[in-house]
Amino acid sequence: MAESSTGKELGSIPRLISSKNFIQWKTLMEAYFRREDLWRIVSGQLAKPPEQETLDPDKEDAMKEDEFMKYERKLKRYNDWTTKDAKAVYAIKMTVHTDYLRALATCTTSKE
Q1: Which helix (H) or strand (E) is 35 found in, with range?
Q2: N or C: which end of the chain has fewer CB within 10 A?
Q3: Per-domain residue ranges of the chain
C-alpha cells in the first residue's frame, strides 16, 4: 500500500516525547500547518463557522435562489473548515507519543 504524501511528511517530524523536544516539534508542526494551509485553523485565527442544518426537500424548494446560494456557501465554508481541522488533528495525533493521546482524547478541535 502506498504511503500518502502527508504520511511521508509527518514521518519526517520527530514525535513529541517530552518537553525536551517540544520546541523542535512545535516549530516543525507549525511549518507543516502553514504549508498545508491549516495554520489559521490550528492557531484559532479562523474560527469554526456555525454548523448548517440539513435542508429537507420541501424547505429547499421553497427557498429563493439567492437564499439557497447563501446557504450553500455557508455549508461549504463549514465543510471546508471541518475537513481542514480533521487533517490538523490527525497530524497532531500522529506526531505525539502515545502517552499524550489520553490528554488529547477530549479535544474536539486542533486548536484545543
Answers
A1: helix 22-35
A2: N
A3: 5-104
Q: Which three cell numbers stand for residue 101?
A: 493521546
Amino acid (1-letter code) at residue 106? T
Find all residues with CB under 8 Å of 38, minimum gap 6, and list them: 32, 84, 85, 87, 88, 91, 110
Element of type H or E holding 101: helix 101-104
Least Cα distance to 10 among 87, 62, 76 occurs for 87
The Cα–Cα gap between 76 and 99 comes to 36
Answer yes or no: is pLDDT of 75 > 90: yes
For 97, the grid coordinates are 507519543
Of 87 and 71, more confident: 87
Q: What is the pTM of this model?
A: 0.83
